[in-house]
Amino acid sequence: MTAQSNQSITATTPDEATRAVLIRSRPAQAGAGTTTWVFCQRALLKLKHGPDQLFDAIGLPIILTLMFTYLLGGALAGSPTAYIQQLTPGILVMTLTFMTVTTGLNLSTDLAKGVSDRFRSMPIWQPGTIIGAMAGDIVRYLVASVVVIGLGLALGFRPAGGVVGVLLSFVVMIVFVYSLTWLWISLGLGLRAPEAMLNISMMILMPLSFLSNIFVNPDTMPGWLEAFVTVNPLTQVVTAVRGLMSDTVTGSQLLWVLVGCVLVTAVFAPLALRKYRTRQ
Amino acid sequence: MTTEPELAIEASGLVKTFGETRAVDGVDLSVRTGSVYGVLGPNGAGKTTTIRLLTTLLQPDSGSARIFGHDLVREAGAIRTKVSLTGQLASVDEDLTARENLYLLSRLQGFSRTAAQERADELLDGFGLADAAARQVKTFSGGMRRRLDIAASIVVSPELLFLDEPTASLDPRSRNQVWEIVRALVEVGTTVLLTTQYLEEADQLADRIAVIEHGKVIAEGTPGELKTSVGSGTLHLRLASADQRADAERVLGRFLEDPAGVRSDPVALSARVPTELSAQAAQERVRQALAELASAGIEVNEFSFGQPSLDEVFLAITGHRPDDGSTNGSDPDKEDVA
Questions:
Q1: Residue B1, domain member (yes or no)
Q2: Which secondary structure element, helix H or strand E, spans residue A82, and what is its range?
Q3: Which among B88, B108, B185 is the nearest to A30, CB-wise?
Q4: Residue B1: closest CA among chain A residues belongs to which residue?
Q5: Are both B236 and B171 inside the same structural domain?
Q6: DSSP assignment of A241-253, as one string?
Q7: Beta strand pairing status for B62-67 and B7-18?
Q8: Are residues B131 and B27 in the same domain?
Q9: B315 occurs within a structural domain
Q10: Within this chain, do residues B189 and B250 fall inside the same structural domain, yes or no?
Q11: A6 within domain boundaries
Q12: What is the DSSP letter of B137?
């Protein structure tokens, strides 16, 4: 018995096989494009293995849409069908906004688990780690948009802007969510625990979502609250997206959103990349 | 390869502080190219921080180091093409399969799509993971995960491999496999720096060992030199009654050195065999001590005589046992995570 188990240890000792796979010749270094693409693939593979990431992001908008439309739609807009016209773009912006947290959370988890240590000690184009992961997110945003708009259409949402309006609004939302993602990535790099990052982002997003024009028309609110709701960046984005979908958008509405996005990106993207490089 | 510098690592006075804690407090190391260097120390001694400094993940507050002649701070990029790290934490992606992990890393190392597929399969075969290739890493046992971790570090076999506690919490069989992998790497010319809490592991693998505590190297030498400084071995006893402990210490003191109790156990005692004795003489001395205990009427329930443990190396070098309680809690250099 003992002799046998000893033998099996010898047999599985991987020295011969290990020796055979050791190579010293290094292929040409991967470029920035390849590196970014590899991290995009990694994000997509993680999505493939854990599609529950999507259910989490999609379950909430479905519940909120159904609940608000039928529970409050009549009271807030006269009828559920009238309410769904303004609710669908609002819920879509809110959904994508909450989904941006996942990117920061994933990075934060990589840092906490030590996966990032390997990438950071490799001779690769380091920003590719973050930019690739963000590129992979587009799939999640597309799926969520299709679900929310599909549900809206089924419930009577009829965007006057047509297909073009909806596609343009998607572009605006993508610009917005990517600028916001840099904020969460900076936050994730600054905090030790992924949980802390999640808690802080929820503390920011929850009030911003409800104290906005997503669910309720700000005209009905007391003056001080209306003032807050009007300057809330989510309100600005929702207004622009609603405008594009209903073909009533103004140039200044779009301009404000784009200026905001550029500012947020200009501050947080360099900050995040620098923090990633120098994180201790 | 003939042009490689003689020293793979040349560090002097490395310091890294986190707030109040001086995690690394003036570490000097020189590691010969092609050798295995063991860094031995308890939790929180600064082993992981030292490795993170040497792999460019952290910047030193002061001091300097050269890796194959490249400056740690100014030439971090060049160093990253030569070194590879297997951290203590799982550095592979748990959500992905073993093959996906190795494929992506191969792509990052510059292999083409097809070459990366081949490289991944080659590594899986070589490390006995072919059957588990399509399984998510989170379903792996500790030993399998560790092998995958090391495979991931040698997608391109590095010139210098850092292994942070490579066998922590592994069963003996997996531990032997890891040791074999390390030996195979050394055979092809890879320099290895590994940290460990076990003298036996350092003894098995390392050409030289540095013992570190509180961020400082407190002893350095070959395993033989270190063990000699500790003594030829240690006798451990358990008495039938704690009342006889003082008598037992007195008797042992006539034959052996530093008889000392164990804080947590009132009936446990240990004493070292004098350094100058040969192995045979050491055994004879232990026999004498045991016989004398018996004739003094001191009842011994258990005894063992063995190689010095890390605790004893510490005891011998520092005069005290390694700190275990106080430094762990808030220590940023947390090393007991695996």
A1: no
A2: helix A80-113
A3: B108
A4: A24
A5: no
A6: HHHHHHT---HHH
A7: antiparallel
A8: yes
A9: no
A10: no
A11: no
A12: G
Question: Which of A18, A41, A48, A129 has the most B C-beta neighbours within 10 Å, making it the best mutation to test the interface with B?
Answer: A18
Residue B320 lies in a domain: no
Strands B191-196 and B160-164: parallel
Q: What is the pLDDT of residues A111-128, one digit of tens each?
A: 888 888 889 989 999 999
Q: How many CA atoms lie within 13 A of B153 on its CB side?
A: 33
Query: Which chain B residues in 88-127 lie under 8 Å from chain A, judged by CB atoms?
Result: 88-97, 100, 104-105, 107-112, 115, 122-123, 125-127
- Is residue B317 one of the residues assigned to a domain? no
Residue bearing tokens 């906004």: A97
- In a domain? residue A13: no
Residue A169 tokens read as 């609004």
Among A34, A38, A118, select the one facing B152 at the smallest CB separation.
Answer: A118
- How far is the alpha carbon of A33 from chain B, nearest alpha carbon, in Å? 11
Distance from CA of A123 to the nearest CA of B (A): 5
Q: Which of B51, B53, B91, B149 is the best mutation test for A, with the most CBs of A within 10 A?
A: B91
Of the candidates B178, B196, B228, which is a domain's last residue?
B228
pLDDT of residue B337: 35
Across residues B155-162, what is the average pLDDT? 91
Stated as kind and residue range, the H or E segment containing A36 is: helix A32-49
User: A119: domain range?
Assistant: 32-278
What is the per-residue burial (b if ≥16 Cβ within 10 Å, else e) of A136-170? bbeebbebbbebbbebbeebbbebebeeebbebbb
Decide if B185 touches A, using CB distance below 8 A: yes
| A26 inside domain | no
**What CATH number has the domain bearing residue B129?**
3.40.50.300
Residue of chain B minimizing CA distance to A125: B108
The verdict on a CB contact (< 8 Å) between B128 and A14 is yes
* Residues B95 and B173 reside in one and the same domain: yes
The total of structural domains in chain B comes to: 2
Overall number of domains in chain A = 1
Q: pLDDT tens for residues B284-315?
A: 888 998 999 999 889 898 888 876 666 667 77
- Whether residues A118 and B87 touch (CB distance < 8 A) is answered with yes
Q: Whose CA is closest to B144, among B159, B130, B157?
A: B130
- Please check whether residue A72 touches B, CB under 8 A: no
Is residue A25 domain-resident?
no
ipTM computed for the complex:
0.86
pLDDT band, very low/low/confident/very high, at A84 (cuts 50, 70, 90): very high
What is the pLDDT at residue A277? 84
Residue B137 and residue B74 share a domain = yes
Lowest mean pLDDT among A107-111, A273-277, B130-134, B169-173: B169-173
| In a shared domain, residues B201 and B238 | no
Provide the percentage of residues in chain B whose pLDDT is more than 70: 88
Range of the domain at B301: 232-307
